[in-house]
Amino acid sequence: MSALELLDELGFEACAMVLGPEGVREQRGDVDLPRPWRSVTKTLTGFASAVALQEGRVGLDDPAGPEGSTLRHLLAHASGYFYESSRTLQAPGLRRHYSNYGIDEAARHLERATGYDIGDWVQEKVADPLGMSRLEWGGSPSVGAVGPVADLALLAAEVLRPTLLRPPWSRELTSVQFPELVGIMPGFGKQTPNPFALGFEVRGTKSPHWTGAHNSPGTVGHFGMRGTAFWVDPEADLALVIGSAHDFCDAHRDVLPRLGDAVLESHARCTPS
């Protein structure tokens, strides 16, 4: 049985791709259908920010957002902003408060520093070099991307084997920022701690969680509330990219962790035939 046959247990249309360092190991379903990425967009904005860091256009300690906040705080959901508001819940660095507004504010800081519209920056610096030809960038830098799973897989493959970022910046992109912070993981409740990197979620020891029980703590990625998700596990040397035709729901919470573990069992550290 293919690990990806577990997608059928979702009860609605879905697709997935398994990636190793050499490329696609396995896929199932319509990976070319455009899908809303929603919060998975944050990883694209985080990656685009890392390119700007590498080019010296911005610095993680640049003041940005509410008083006392930096670009690092914004990208790591530690600025104190509410979910979708410029109001603040607390001072920066005290709690992991997931914030679309904070990611959008990080993108505005990039625009001011680079002189680019954020969509143009993403296209020129990330999408075009990676061949993400069907990515549509519109609306919010936190939730606005639309594209097929096949294009999202190109981003996942880049995180697995970086080509655009030099090692210091690829490590920074996926390293936990403010590791001690506690917070609510949307859809999964309070996590102590609740690690995030720069636009990427980090698995850590979160439980419950949408990745597999056997994914390593260093696994990074994101899920979106319209049913798109991906993770990259550096210890397993493996990535999984998922798209579905349903908002994130209890079926995802049940199937995705089991799917992750099945993919790990089938593919982790294996040598392709």
TrEMBL record:
Short name of any one Pfam family annotated for the protein: Beta-lactamase
Entry-linked SUPFAM superfamilies: beta-lactamase/transpeptidase-like
InterPro entries, sorted: Beta-lactam-related, Beta-lactam/transpept-like, Diverse_Enzym_Activities
Taxonomy, superkingdom: Bacteria
Residues spanning the signal sequence: none
Beta-lactamase-related domain boundaries: 36-243
PANTHER family for the chain: BETA-LACTAMASE-RELATED, CONSERVED PROTEIN
UniProt-recorded name of the protein: CubicO group peptidase (Beta-lactamase class C family)
Species name: Brachybacterium fresconis
